[in-house]
Amino acid sequence: MLEFTPAFTAIGLFTLLLAVVSLLPLSQRTHWLIRLWDFPRLQLTAVALTLLVASAIWLPIASSTTWFLVSIQVVCCAWQLWWIFPYTPLAARTVPRYHRKHDEKSVEEHLRILTVNVLEHNRNAVELVQMINRERPDIIVAVETDDWWEKQLTDIEDDLPNVVRVPQNNLYGMMLYSVWPLENVQVENIIEDNVPSIHADIQMPDGRVVKLRCVHPAPPSPTENEKSKPRDRELLQVAKRAPNDSGPVIVTGDLNDVAWSPTTREFLRVSRLLDPRMGRGFFNTFHAQLPFLRWPLDHLFHSEHFMLVKMRRLPKFGSDHFPLLIELALKRQD
């Protein structure tokens, strides 16, 4: 009979906790305490693997209780891996890679898009401006921008003269900068007051129009919304618009949701947009200050009109988010 040693007690308790937090997201409830566990699936996979190793080292192999715990750990590990696998390099890529030698003649224009959550009370604007000058993006979507950030970013307007400014002091300010003209600009509070989104048509040099939708819904959290319904509803509303947009479409911003969540999967299904992360890596953009608690919160989804040139997570600059830089190649019209 298995003795209740300290090792068994610790491994058993952590296995039980792993099982509980793995099952919680299966609930349809939208409370933040439940939806929270959509996020750390990579970390929970690591916990499951650690428990498997610990069980092999400290628990007797002949015990049926050991095998019971191990079976729970294996199931939890496989379950978490099922969610995150599409974002590993082993999975299929949904967005083709641009190869200059073969694809240059079939491409009209390149778009370098920088999505960045500046963290409203972060005051290290100099480093971000230097990064922008170094990377030379064509479009910048900056969120959590207040009046102070609006003033600090005026230096980049010589290169990016087409600007939509929605500074706010509530963590939901948004700024859009573009080298190309912006038309049909709309600033819209889709679900919640004072939580804006920006929608605009980018006028490309060849005359084509790219629809750009920039979003930053409020997250489910103890300090924001108790439930995820406002975030989920906003994302679904944006997703429903994408199939009705004629021509190329890009949706980007801090979605306050991970790439592998049920909400994001539903967004991709409804919008018919593509995620360039798939088959390439996690590109975790949050939390910049906590290396062991990171997941992808900042996103860019696009229509099939594009190929991916490159995708990079840029260095941290004082925010709790890393900037995300994506270069797309716009295919020529048939």
Automatic annotation (TrEMBL):
Keywords: Endonuclease, Hydrolase, Membrane, Nuclease, Transmembrane, Transmembrane helix. One of its GO terms (molecular function) is endonuclease activity. Coiled coil: none annotated. Residues 114-321 form the Endonuclease/exonuclease/phosphatase domain. It comes from the Bacteria. InterPro entries: Endo/exonu/phosph_ase_sf, Endo/exonuclease/phosphatase. The keyword Transmembrane helix applies. This is Endonuclease. It comes from Pseudidiomarina homiensis. The lineage of its organism: Bacteria, Pseudomonadati, Pseudomonadota, Gammaproteobacteria, Alteromonadales.
